[in-house]
Amino acid sequence: MIIKKFTAETETEAILMAKEEMGPQAVVLNIKKMKHKGLARFFKKDIVEVTAALEENPQTPPITSDVVKEIAKIAQAEEQEESGYRKVEEEEKTTAIEEKLNNLQNMLEHQMKKDRNVGKEEEKKKKEEEDTNVKFMKLVYNQLIENEVDEKYANQIIGEVQSSLKKESSMDTMLSCIYQKIILKLGEPKPIVLKEGKKQIVFFVGPTGVGKTTTIAKLASDFKLTKKANIALITSDTYRIAAVEQLRTYANILDVKLQVVYTVGELNQAVMDFADFDLILVDTAGRSHNNREQCEEMLQLIRQADVEDLGFEKNIYVVLSASTKYKDLLKITDVYKDLAKYQLIFTKLDETSGLGNILNLRLKTQSSLSYITAGQGVPDDISLIEPQKMAKRLLGGDTQ
Questions:
Q1: For residues 138-167, b (16+ Cβ closer than 10 Å) or e, as one string?
Q2: Which tens digit of pLDDT belongs to each residue from 200-230?
Q3: Cβ distance 86 to 35 under 8 Å?
Q4: How far is residue 59's CA from residue 44's CA, in Å, rounded to a whole number?
Q5: 390: closest CA among 71, 149, 88, 229?
Q6: What gap in Å lies between CA 283 and CA 251, rounded to an integer?
Q7: Distance of CA 187 to the CA centre of its chain
Q8: pTM (global) more than 0.85
Q9: For the chain, which has fewer Cβ within 10 Å, the N-terminal or C-terminal residue?
Q10: Is 272:243 a contact under the CB 8 Å cutoff?
Q11: Gap between the Cα atoms of 210 and 328, Å rounded
Q12: How far is residue 46's CA from residue 89's CA, in Å, rounded to a whole number?
């Protein structure tokens, strides 16, 4: 008798292999599932082992009971061997799994500890960066407040910059953004610009003592001597004789026409007399913002001035002192809230170290900035405001 074993992934495949090799007379004696040995058992599927037998002489009698018993013994022995193997294998497998679990636990604990340390370092570094950024922003805020920027606008600037920056931004980046933000809020200055074929009449208004007359003299000098413009002067500041004489002196030096007016009618007549001039500068009487009646009288003069029919474009410049308290500046500008659009001129920058009111009034009134003056010199101590330079000064730099 020939006895052979065949292994395959399935029972059917193993039987077919036996039949193919031993012929259709082959008899299946035993079928059992087997596991791969070693590490392969973790990666490969179980296999099926088929034990088949074939009579060497087909004429011989069928398999006897003794043969069957012998085969049964063989199968039993193999089963016991397999059972022992499975037991050892299961023990080895359990031990291996336990070792792997222990190793995995140790590895995870080590990694978690490492991650915690890295996380703490990153968190510490991040917190230090955030603390540094917060401290820096507080310094900038305090600098703006020191320069008399109103708290509302200082917070607005800092808030807008913080919302647009990444948390890890450097101090240079933050300072640059704040600097640019202030420049944008100051806006482009709006000077008096002579236009081809367009005559202009400019009214200068403001409280007493801010330097309106001197400012007009400085501008008149620039347009007459530098720009070669054909200009004339009008003053309605008849409440101060000194103001009229002061402006008359400048007019004589510059060789420009000057008329003194007391009423709206006289103002309109003066404008008609100067109809051929490119630019007329009008000095109005200084009025206290607390005297509403006088302020209204001055405003009526401007409103009723019939200049458009004569081809003049009307512009208004409110002259303010940079050294005036912000609370008073708010009351002063409130007088002119019903006027048409006006620009802002700030004088006496040499008499104060806090320039925040320039930014405050710009943001409060939404009126454009124009000229600034620092000193009594004519025509030197006047210039168009420079937003970049002003922003630097507000941030504590470029104080000259």
A1: eebbebbeebbbbeebbeebbeebbeebee
A2: 999 999 998 899 999 999 999 999 999 999 9
A3: yes
A4: 43
A5: 149
A6: 13
A7: 19
A8: no
A9: C
A10: no
A11: 13
A12: 14
